[in-house]
Design goal:
Mean pLDDT: 96
CATH superfamily of the largest domain: Alpha/Beta hydrolase fold, catalytic domain
Keywords: Hydrolase, Signal
Radius of gyration: 19 Å
Shape: globular
Strand content: 15-25%
Helix content: 40-55%
Number of strands: 8
Number of domains: 2
Structural class: alpha/beta
Protein name: Alpha/beta fold hydrolase
GO molecular function: hydrolase activity
CATH topology of the largest domain: Rossmann fold
Organism: Sungkyunkwania multivorans
Low-confidence stretches: none
CATH architecture of the largest domain: 3-Layer(aba) Sandwich
Pfam families: Abhydrolase_6 (PF12697)
Amino acid sequence: MKLFAKVIGLYYNLLSVFNLNAATHKAFILFCSPRKGAITDEQRQFLDTSEKHVLFFEEIPITAYIWKGHKTTILFAHGWESNAGRWEPYILKLKDIGHTIIAIDAPKHGNSGGALFDLPLYVEFLNVACKEFQPEVLVGHSMGATSIAYLHYKYPVRSLKKMVLLAPPAYLSRIMADYQKLLGYNNNIMASLEDLCEEKFGMRFDEFSIPKYAKAFEELKSLIIHDRFDDITPFAEGKAIASNLKGSKFIATEGLGHSLPSEKVYSEVFDFIAS
């Protein structure tokens, strides 16, 4: 995989010498194109226990899975190359004790539409879902965690009382630096990508900072869980977000990696929602 990525990067670098604009757009499309995210047969069996609703953002279908209850309404947002089925261990417990659960598939993931995945589009999906279902709790993993945090900064969710961030990336600049390292892009492509990001989304790489945005909703009760040995999102990024949320609780795990599959993690989330 890494060798293949380097070959692609070498090709785009060569293309950039002759046509920087074409190389930049190819690099952007590659960055926004998940390789995974399809629903497995096992996940499909679980998701089929829900009521399915299809919402829309600018004619792009958003698939929402709903388990109705009589208690708190909780909305789940998965991360990159995943889908709503990843939340099964959480949903099984929470629906059994009477909560209303909503989980959505991100753009170009699961059963949702979209030609590409980017965080601003995911935020628009989540905003549509929040307007429809008025959740009191948001739970996100990885890019889903980053997306719900940015959502509440950009479109404050008035019904929201609590937020759970699992292994949250904090800085777009770090994500793009990792992308450059993986593909071996030259600095001309990266500078052009940053210009394209500003044109499309109105921000430079270093302007997107979840710790900075978190200060705008520091009164919100928040739980952040991050593994010390996360090899996808640096542990320090979860700590940085927590440090800017005065009402937050930060839990460090060891040996669970980025996905945080653990009964202890599930219990911490359940207890936080119940508190």
